[in-house]
Request: fold
Amino acid sequence: MIRFALHGGAGVIERANLSSENEVQFRSEMARICADAVVKLQQGASALDVVEASICQLENFALFNAGHGAVLNANAEVEMDAAIMDGRNRACGAIAAAKTPKNPITLARAVMEQTEHVLIVGAGADQLAAKLGVAQAELSYFVTEFRAEQQRLAAKLGKVTLDHDSIFNAPVLTSGLADPRDKKGTVGAVARDAHGNLAAGTSTGGMTNKMPGRTGDTAIIGAGTWADNQTLAASATGHGEYFIRNAVCFDIHAQMLYGGQSIEAASAATFARVGKMGGTGGVIAIDHSGLIHMPFNSEGMYRAWFDGQQMQVAIYQNDLL
Reply:
């Protein structure tokens, strides 16, 4: 009973503010990656392998905020976070503020499988990539003109923002490089394989114009990423500080494991707390029985999924194709 879901970020994503060309690109790429994941799962691939492979593809797609096309910090540099978790035994690995791994999720998995640690940060993560032979790239590979323009705007306004923040709706960007209203975000994937095993992973460039060294929920196991065969696999996207303060993915898991709550009830309670604090974002999740649930409290969330019968792609609220 295989299942799969992916996300490409949540936030102020409205039909009127997303160019038709970019919308087609987003839907097409999410559908392609989702379909590829389904084929792999049908052929017997593990949930962990499929999650890593899918996130690598999302990281390679320049319009999402991860890997190639990641947002820039206040020094106009990339600092990338990623995490992956195996639901069979809670094995996990994460990196934060890394500048060189071409596919951050692959380095996160290497941390899990080839070190005694869970989280490696900054220069240590880059050094580990070199030591283990994980593919690395120069800054020029990661930076796109659109991201550079976003960072310049955020710096001019003195803001630290999500890359899909509403400030990018303003007609301040007039260079014609890219439509600032086209929003993108953190990426993630969750899977349930033919053996019933769950896995989750998340990858991001963080927040535009963030303080160097800032780490969000993506790399924090339990906040932005969680997998346990007893409950669910979950990957979060949104304002990381609020998701850390609420340990979002673990909180949903704990309500299910200790309180016997359904994934829907647990998610609703968690997001009520996040929303009350002022946080926005979403989660994609698959529970132990194969139920897919993707709650979010923002205008939209890029997402695609396979429920065992059909594949669907959506961006907005109440948007099914």
